[in-house]
Design goal:
CATH architecture of the largest domain: 3-Layer(aba) Sandwich
Low-confidence stretches: 1-30, 60-67, 251-256, 435-463, 505-510
Number of helices: 12
Strand order of the largest sheet: 17-18-16-19-20-21
InterPro entries: G_OBG, GTP-bd, GTP1-OBG_CS, GTP1_OBG_dom, GTP1_OBG_dom_sf, OBG_GTPase, P-loop_NTPase, Small_GTP-bd
Distance between the termini: 52 Å
CATH superfamily of the largest domain: P-loop containing nucleotide triphosphate hydrolases
CATH topology of the largest domain: Rossmann fold
Structural class: alpha/beta
Oligomer: single chain
Mean pLDDT: 75
Organism: Amborella trichopoda
Largest sheet: 6 strands, mixed
Keywords: GTP-binding, Nucleotide-binding
Bound molecules: guanosine-5'-triphosphate
GO biological process, one term: ribosome biogenesis
Number of domains: 3
Helix content: 10-25%
Number of strands: 21
Pfam families: GTP1_OBG (PF01018), MMR_HSR1 (PF01926)
Radius of gyration: 36 Å
Length: 510
């Protein structure tokens, strides 16, 4: 801990061993006793004057460095990674200037030759910038910097924006004038736009009113959130008797008191924004903790999620890319997909149990759900129903989506023995019909308009009454062991077939 020495009260003491000082230190904490060599009198070299003495000092603790992330942010990153409020301010416009015309000297030119007279005339009338109608173009203050937010492939969470949540663009440059109009005058420099990178899939809303500004789903998508202030104009000041001549020179000649305000650059805008990340993925992996979702993702993609035998290893969605099946020829690309492995859900997640269910917003853009069920668990059917129930509590529309059930851990005897009966039982939960696409679109539209995605929409409230068995049954139920790589290929075949069906069924879901 960096310390600094507190002052010793008596002026007759001089304290030799000084402790490290730090300008950020604040006086605080309880007194501490130090054994310090003290000198009495002025003669430093006389050892007889040296005395060791116990002195009580106050030590100060260095304030936490504000640039370092707060401990709660590091410890509970899963609560913050997909939601943040930031305030942005665009730059003010630079100021224009009030200029006067240069005074012309009245030299007697009678004695000069014609050549000299022409040269003199050229020198006296500098080439001001002029408009097409011949009027003078006066310099303007630079435009203030805009603030824009763009989708960057290199970003995967909004955590960084919690560390710094205020962004200000630079102001535009002033017209650098000494008060006299010259041909050398330039516009003030426009300030560069400030571009804030966010992960792909970020939704940008105004905090006030919740107005949706943009949904940045493609790499490079950009939205202007605060426009920089307009630069001020310049005015020509002139004495009354010369105004008429000058009026014929430029349309910019204005000497109204009200117009003078335009010389000052316009202020920038300040706006507070809510950024919500909704992962962009085709397939969402859902299930209870420890069901093997991360193991499945690692088995079929190059993703390297954390895998462990304790629940809630996954705190934030992990993404993996499933390549298209080359055996499908032209259909290859319809079977390529991005998979999102979500944190485990438990019963009561909608009441905040476990990690809660806020992360379920990341299923919003998926078109296929893959339920991963631990087939060796005590009651796999109940586990499957529990997850469905939690999905329904969050957004009943999720239960309308096509889904595949993966019964995992069939390398274990207890799972292998009951696999056929489990497959039959789960395959029969639900009905055959698919939800009409129009209902999904309506749901999406309602949620986009009300702006509060965790609040059930009116449509959700109506749908809540439906029983689990009244939603579509799974497209396929497959037994696998993701850990031992048993049954991976048949499982991939079913996932790809389901993806193709989703394409036919609802191509505009993502
Ligand atoms: N025997 C066996 N164990 C498996 C299989 N798949 C996963 N496991 C184990 O189950 C445990 C949990 O696996 P994860 O992949 O972390 O489970 P998860 O569903 O992602 O868990 P959360 O992160 O808590 O949501 C790990 O110890 C895995 O090794 C399997 O096929 N067979």
């Amino acid at each position: 801990m960096p310390l600094r020495m507190a002052r010793v009260a008596s002026p007759s003491f001089s304290v030799y061993p000084t402790l490290p000082t730090d300008s950020k230190a604040t006086p605080s904490l309880s007194p501490v006793t130090f054994l310090l060599p003290l000198r009495y009198g002025k003669k430093r070299n006389q050892s007889s004057l040296l005395r060791w003495q116990f002195i009580q000092c106050r030590v100060a603790k260095v304030k936490d460095d504000p640039s370092s992330s707060s401990p709660s942010l590091i410890k509970e990153a899963h609560k913050y990674f997909d939601h943040v409020f930031i305030t942005v301010r665009s730059g003010d416009g630079g100021h224009g200037a009030v200029l006067t015309m240069p005074t012309t000297q009245r030299n007697p030119t009678k004695t000069l030759s014609r050549h000299e007279k022409e040269a003199m005339k050229k020198k006296r009338s500098p080439s001001y910038k002029r408009d097409s109608d011949g009027s003078l173009i006066l310099p303007m203050g630079g435009h203030g910097g805009d603030v824009a937010i763009y989708a960057d492939e290199g970003k995967d969470s909004l955590l960084e924006l919690h560390k710094k949540n205020r962004y200000s663009a630079k102001r535009g440059g002033n017209v650098d004038a000494m008060g006299v109009l010259t041909s050398m005058l330039h516009d003030g420099n426009a300030a560069p736009a400030m571009r804030i990178p966010v992960p792909i899939g970020t939704v940008v809303r105004r905090k006030q009113g919740g107005k949706l500004l943009a949904d940045l789903v493609n790499p490079g998508d950009e939205v202007l959130v605060a426009r920089g202030g307009q630069g001020g104009i310049s005015l020509l000041e002139m004495p009354e008797h010369r105004r008429k001549t000058l009026m014929s020179l430029t349309t910019n000649v204005m000497r109204d008191e009200n117009d003078k305000v335009l010389v000052l650059g316009q202020p920038g805008q300040e706006v507070t924004l809510e950024l919500i990340l909704r992962v962009v993925a085709d397939v969402g992996l859902v299930g209870l903790p420890n069901a093997g979702k991360s193991t499945l993702l690692a088995a079929i993609t190059f993703a390297k999620p954390d895998i462990a035998e304790y629940p809630f290893t996954t705190l934030m969605p992990n993404l993996g890319r499933l390549d298209g099946d080359p055996r499908l020829g032209a259909l290859k690309y319809s079977s390529a997909a991005t998979l999102a492995d979500l944190p485990g859900l438990i019963e009561g997640a909608h009441l905040g149990k476990g990690l809660g269910r806020n992360f379920l917003r990341h299923l919003r853009r998926t078109r296929l759900l893959v339920h991963v069920v631990d087939a060796a668990a005590e009651n796999p059917v109940k586990d499957y129903r529990t997850v469905k129930e939690e999905l329904r509590m969050y957004n009943p529309e999720y239960l309308e989506r096509p889904h595949v059930v993966i019964l995992n851990k069939i390398d274990l005897t207890e799972a292998r023995d009951r696999l056929p009966s489990l497959i039959e039982e789960i395959a029969n939960i639900g009905c055959n019909e698919m939800a009409p696409k129009s209902v999904e679109s309506l749901e999406g539209a309602l949620e986009t308009s009300n702006g509060h995605e965790n609040q059930p929409s009116p449509l959700s409230t109506i749908k809540k009454e439906k029983e689990i068995g009244e939603y579509p049954r799974p497209l396929a139920v497959v037994g696998v062991s993701c850990l031992k790589h048993i049954g991976i290929n048949p499982m991939l075949k079913e996932i790809r077939a389901a993806l193709r069906k989703c394409n036919d069924y609802s191509p505009s879901m993502v």
